Amino acid sequence: MPRSTLVNDEPCPVARSLDVVGDRWSLLIVRDAFDGMRRFGDFQRSLGMARNILSDRLRKLVQAGILETTAASDGSAYQEYVLTPQGESLFPVMVALRQWGEQHLFEPGEHHSVLIDKHTGQPVSTMAPTAKDGSVLTPATTEVRKLT
Question: Is 39 left (phi over 0), alpha (psi -120 to 50) or beta?
Fold first, then answer.
């Protein structure tokens, strides 16, 4: 996203990221795009949100370079919304949110959707940040070097 269009010029990457995808609707649209949704009506049916809110969030995601509009794949007059490479790079963020929710927001044995590796048919392993040597990093073993 070009710097001139940023709402937040804070030097924190988390704050800038939240300006772009930090609301519930935007992340759910991205989730649905990862699940193969491409059309306005499909997003609306899936999310049950008002047309004006959906239109606004889609516009913002296109402006941010996360989605792009293309001609409908079936040759109709509709347009479709597809993830750009920048949007696809949100995949680890979505997986991390999913896995955090699985660990903390469901009772033991409570059913929920599961992310499956298509090649093995098995659930995706829990993600964790790792050091160059492969050891798992924790908040205690990392620090943010802030600008002074």
Answer: beta
pTM of the model: 0.88
What is the distance between the alpha carbons of residues 43 and 73, in angstroms, rounded to a whole number?
Answer: 16
> Could you give the 3-state DSSP secondary structure of residue 134?
coil
> 103: closest CA among 79, 75, 83, 123?
123
pLDDT profile of the chain (148 residues), mean per 10: 58 92 96 97 96 97 97 90 98 97 95 96 96 96 92
Give the DSSP H or E segment for 67.
Answer: strand 67-71
Question: Is the Cα dihedral 6, 8, 11, 12 positive or negative?
Answer: negative
Kindly report each contact of residues 75-81 with a partner whose C-beta sits within 8 Å and lies 24 or more positions away, as own/partner. Answer: 78/39, 78/40, 79/40, 80/38, 80/39, 81/33, 81/37, 81/38, 81/39, 81/40, 81/43
Contact 46, 81 (CB under 8 A): no
Scan for tokens 């049916």, then name that residue: 45
pLDDT at 1: 47
